[in-house]
Amino acid sequence: MAFSIHRTSLVDFQPAAHIVDSNDDSRHSLQKLVASMGFVAVTFASPAEFLEGAAQGRRGCLILSLPAPAYTGLGVLEQLATLPDALPIIVVTDCNSVPPAVRAVQLGVAAYLQRHCFSETSLWEAIHAAFARDAVQRAAYERRQALLARYSELSLRERHILELIIQGCDHKQIADDLNVSRRTVENRRSKIMSKLGADTFPQLIAISIELGISADRKPGS
């Protein structure tokens, strides 16, 4: 099942609990409960409907209602959990089987709650923790996207020099490898640092490591 991303709305840019539940009664019940806790609650009748209106920048968490047996919805959970800009997911299910719960944990869900026994407090705590987790993930995601954008501004020669620097080559080795002067290498390294926003050499190394740059691995690979 392929999902597409289209529309945006004002709620996409403020923390909200996005409730996905195909059952009208339980969906409305969850919305009422979540709203009573002081959270913005938005409902969707299906994962496809949720992603139809999704946009990068959506904040908060996703509350995904899985039917019993829960393993029937694991494919949907896997797709939602592995989106590049995925929200933390709270699973609410009637299923008490262990394997689906284990798989959900492996996929990194923020919480796995059984509908018949979770308390309002546990749901509130799960949403609160998911919001905090989303803020951290969002900051990291946006920083990486900004760094990738900066990296894309490097010329092929500058990228090669950066990879040689990460390998531990000094200016003389790089100059010999590229058949240029050491001054040329120094100037290009200075431009690389400026484009990547690195004020010091250790910062340049840290940014390179954060991007996953090495001699045989490029950012995003």
TrEMBL record:
<dbReference type="GO" id="GO:0003677">
    <property type="term" value="F:DNA binding"/>
</dbReference>
<keyword id="KW-0805">Transcription regulation</keyword>
<feature type="domain" description="HTH luxR-type">
    <location>
        <begin position="147"/>
        <end position="212"/>
    </location>
</feature>
<dbReference type="GO" id="GO:0006355">
    <property type="term" value="P:regulation of DNA-templated transcription"/>
</dbReference>
<dbReference type="InterPro" id="IPR011006">
    <property type="entry name" value="CheY-like_superfamily"/>
</dbReference>
<dbReference type="GO" id="GO:0000160">
    <property type="term" value="P:phosphorelay signal transduction system"/>
</dbReference>
<dbReference type="InterPro" id="IPR016032">
    <property type="entry name" value="Sig_transdc_resp-reg_C-effctor"/>
</dbReference>
<dbReference type="InterPro" id="IPR000792">
    <property type="entry name" value="Tscrpt_reg_LuxR_C"/>
</dbReference>
<dbReference type="Pfam" id="PF00196">
    <property type="entry name" value="GerE"/>
</dbReference>
<dbReference type="InterPro" id="IPR001789">
    <property type="entry name" value="Sig_transdc_resp-reg_receiver"/>
</dbReference>
<dbReference type="Pfam" id="PF00072">
    <property type="entry name" value="Response_reg"/>
</dbReference>
<keyword id="KW-0238">DNA-binding</keyword>
<dbReference type="InterPro" id="IPR036388">
    <property type="entry name" value="WH-like_DNA-bd_sf"/>
</dbReference>
<keyword id="KW-0804">Transcription</keyword>
<protein>
    <recommendedName>
        <fullName>Two-component transcriptional response regulator</fullName>
    </recommendedName>
</protein>
<feature type="domain" description="Response regulatory">
    <location>
        <begin position="16"/>
        <end position="130"/>
    </location>
</feature>
